[in-house]
Design brief:
33% of the residues lie in helices and 24% in strands. The chain is of the alpha+beta class and 341 residues long. The protein folds into three domains: 3-95, Rossmann fold (3-Layer(aba) Sandwich); 105-120 and 183-339, ATP-grasp fold, B domain (D-amino Acid Aminotransferase, Chain A, domain 1); 124-180, Dna Ligase, domain 1 (2-Layer Sandwich). The strands form three sheets. Strands 11-10-9-12-13 form a five-stranded antiparallel beta sheet. Helix 1 packs across helix 13. The structure holds adenosine monophosphate (AMP).
Length: 341
């Protein structure tokens, strides 16, 4: 019997609950400091206790996973805490495409894949001296928006960067990525692509709540002007959103373009869950600043099923359960190699 394993963080509860509901054994790789938290949940069958998630690369951990025929579900914590080389060296079968996670982590590769998928993107700015409009300055990897900042020109960029360096938030030799700021309604569009039936499903939309950029919006301009704090975009939680139905056709097109592009540039393509992240402007035009090539934590709001999945499935279907269903179907039809790497 196949089992489902994941790291104890991000969306692990949803993933393992979904797996349990599908009748699969569930395994959590758990940091010792979080044992008490995860012990509260009866759907976790086995916990592999570690001091650091990197131990997932150790023989001991991989042996336990192998003995259990485990499929490892990658999520944001795996991408944030491990290098691409480390992820690619994992021997346990990884759900989806572990090779595409490098394209998520590396800003230049990310931009290349987004262009290949014809996603409308904000313009990148190559040098601080070329900042002409409001920009957002980002760090590499899945930093969750921590240490990001906005700048209006080169001088503004330098003073904020220096301030963050002196506060120890970013390091002096870090390469920062500058992109035009796109204003509008935030929308994080989650999809699932199944290589088994070659179909793309639209799962749902979430919004992220980010501190302290959101907190800043709650105080009057007069106080904002007096503050010399550099607001960051650290994700605190998520909330649901549904789109105007007239936008759905374009949403599916973007998802399909992404799947097609991923097939061309990074075999075996974009299998499993992924998210296209961006904003809708005043003309309902979408600009995408980011993608995640695996399950996103925003799917946690739909543990009981999303509005769009209730249109596709006559049962409650979370993203965690959808993943487990795919693993189960592939196991039964001897096609695990098609959905894992
Ligand atoms: P990211 O790491 O790219 O997902 O960015 C973290 C957060 O920064 C996003 O959730 C947005 O709130 C914000 N953000 C990133 N890029 C842009 C952009 N080009 N324009 C406006 N907001 C952005």
């Amino acid at each position: 019997m196949t089992s489902i394993a994941t790291l104890g963080s991000h969306c692990s509860l949803q993933v393992l609950k979904g797996a349990k509901d599908e009748g699969l054994k569930t395994i959590l790789v758990c940091e010792k400091k979080r044992e008490k938290l995860y012990k509260r949940f009866p759907f976790i069958d086995e916990m592999i206790m570690v001091d650091s998630f990197k131990e997932v690369l150790d023989q001991k951990c991989q042996r336990i996973l192998e003995e259990n025929n485990a499929v490892l579900i990658p999520h944001g914590t795996l991408v944030a805490q491990m290098s691409s080389e480390e992820i690619e060296s994992i021997k346990t079968p990884v759900f989806g495409n572990k090779w595409i996670l490098r394209w998520e982590s590396d800003r230049e590769m990310k931009e290349k894949l987004m262009r290949e998928a014809k996603l409308p993107m904000p313009e990148p700015v190559t040098e601080p001296s070329q900042i002409e409009k409001l920009v957002i300055v980002k760090r590499q990897g899945a930093a969750g928006g921590k240490g990001y900042f906005m700048a209006a020109n080169e001088e503004d960029y330098n003073s904020k960067r220096n301030q963050l360096i002196s506060e120890g938030v970013i390091s002096k030799d870090e390469t920062l990525y500058i992109q035009e700021y796109a204003a509008g309604v935030l929308a994080y569009l989650t999809f699932f692509y199944s290589p088994l039936n070659e179909e793309l499903e639209f799962f749902g939309v979430d919004q992220r709540h980010e501190s302290d950029i959101e907190g800043l919006g709650r105080i009057p301009a007069e106080q904002q002007m007096k503050s010399n704090k550099v607001p960051s975009f650290n994700v605190i939680g998520n909330s649901p959103l549904v789109l105007r139905e007239s936008l759905l056709d374009e949403v599916y097109k973007m998802g399909e373009n992404f799947v097609e592009a991923a097939k061309r540039v990074v075999a075996p393509g974009m299998n499993g869950p992924f998210c296209i992240e961006g904003v809708y402007d005043e003309n309902a035009k979408f600009t995408s600043f980011e993608f995640s090539a695996r399950i996103v934590a925003g799917s946690n709001i739909y543990m009981d099923g999303s509005p769009y999945y209730s249109l596709l499935f006559n049962e409650t279907m979370s993203m965690g359960k959808r993943i487990a269903r795919e693993v189960k179907t592939a196991t039964e039809s001897n096609q695990l190699d098609k959905i894992t790497t």
